[in-house]
Structures are given as C-alpha cells and as structure tokens.
C-alpha cells in the first residue's frame, strides 16, 4: 500500500533527517535521488546515506510547521535545530545550538522522494557558529548620489 505524499514527506524529514534511520532509506528515497541545498548537491542514494552519516551537527531536532501536498510535489516548512560539534566548511566545532527555518520542495515518484530542493538562510547558519558578524553589526550600505537632478 502506497502512503499519501504528505506521509512520505513527513517520514522522509523525521526518520531520515532527524533520526538518521538508514534502514528506511530504500523505502523512502528513489535511486535517482537528487538533493540541492544552498551548500551542496547530492546525487544518488549512496551519497545521501553518506551525508546522513555525517555528525557535524548532533542532537538534531526538526519541528514540522506545514506540509502542503499536490500530486507528486510536497512542500515542507520546518524548524531545524542542531548542535555544531564538528568542523563545517573549515569552521571548528563551536558547540553552539543552531536554529534554522527550512523549506523543502520534494518531488515524488512511485511513492519515493526523487528530488529535494531545500532552502535555508546560509548567513544565519554561519552567524550562529560565529563565522560571520551578526546582521546588525554590518556596515550600512552607502547611498549613491542621484545621477540626474530635475530642474523645476
């Protein structure tokens, strides 16, 4: 019996991305799987399994806020949390808890996720692991002088 698209999406987010349960990988993810997020592109189930084994962030908790399903597309809006315990893009572990708003646009085929387009605020991520200054500390953009002045 095939699950409804919203149920597949919820299992994909919680069982794979939060719990890191690789025993459900074959049941939930298509062989031709592709993940695109602001930092990486992953192609294929083996590459996804490798990503899920990565423990750079621990104590991951995902709270699903919304699930919108239409035919073979599901949009999941969630809040992701994890503790930075490993080197991430050259940034040594800070032990900081990172909280991000995520949007995942999932495409399904034959009851499995075949594409995941994930969106999150990269600046916020690096700000929370002390790799970038907070937005309120950034210099204000310079105002450009007007190019043309109208004469009355």
List the helices and strands and how they pair.
Elements: H1 5-18, H2 25-28, E1 29-36, E2 41-43, H3 45-53, E3 57-70, E4 73-84, E5 97-109, E6 112-119, H4 122-128
Parallel strand pairs: 1-6
Antiparallel strand pairs: 1-2, 3-4, 4-5, 5-6
Strand order of the largest sheet: 2-1-6-5-4-3
Strand percent estimate: 35-45%
How large, in whole angstroms, is the Cα Rg? Answer: 19 Å
Number of helices: 4
Categorize the overall geometry: globular
Helix content: 10-25%
Q: Find the count of extended strands (DSSP E, 2+ residues).
A: 6
> Which stretches are poorly predicted, pLDDT < 50 over at least 5 residues?
none
What top-tier CATH class fits best? Alpha Beta
Q: How is the CATH topology named?
A: Nuclear Transport Factor 2, Chain: A
User: What is the name of the CATH architecture?
Assistant: Roll
Output the helix-strand order: HHEEHEEEEH
User: How far do the termini sit from each other?
Assistant: 75 Å
Mean pLDDT score? 92
Structure report:
It is a single chain. The protein is built from four helices and six strands. By secondary structure, the protein is of the alpha+beta class. It has a single domain (5-133), classed as Nuclear Transport Factor 2, Chain: A. It has a six-stranded mixed β-sheet with strand order 2-1-6-5-4-3, sandwiched between helices. A hairpin with a 4-residue loop joins β1 and β2 (41-43). The longest helix has 14 residues, at 5-18. It is globular, with a radius of gyration of 19 Å. The model has no long low-confidence stretch (mean pLDDT 92).
Short description:
The chain has about 150 residues and is an alpha+beta fold. Helices cover about 20% and strands about 40% of the residues.
């Amino acid at each position: 019996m095939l699950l409804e698209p919203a149920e597949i999406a919820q299992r994909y987010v919680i069982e794979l991305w939060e719990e890191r349960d690789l025993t459900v990988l074959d049941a939930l993810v298509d062989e031709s799987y592709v993940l695109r997020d602001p930092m990486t592109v992953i192609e294929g189930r083996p590459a996804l399994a490798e990503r899920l084994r990565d423990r750079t962030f621990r104590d991951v908790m995902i709270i699903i806020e919304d699930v919108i399903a239409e035919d073979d597309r599901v949009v999941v809006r969630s809040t992701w949390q994890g503790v930075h315990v490993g080197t991430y893009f050259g940034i040594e572990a800070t032990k900081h808890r990172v909280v991000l708003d995520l949007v995942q646009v999932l495409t399904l085929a034959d009851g499995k996720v075949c594409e995941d387009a994930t969106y999150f605020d990269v600046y916020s991520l690096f700000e929370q692991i002390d790799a970038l200054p907070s937005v309120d500390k950034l210099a204000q953009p310079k105002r450009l002088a007007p190019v043309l002045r109208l004469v009355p």
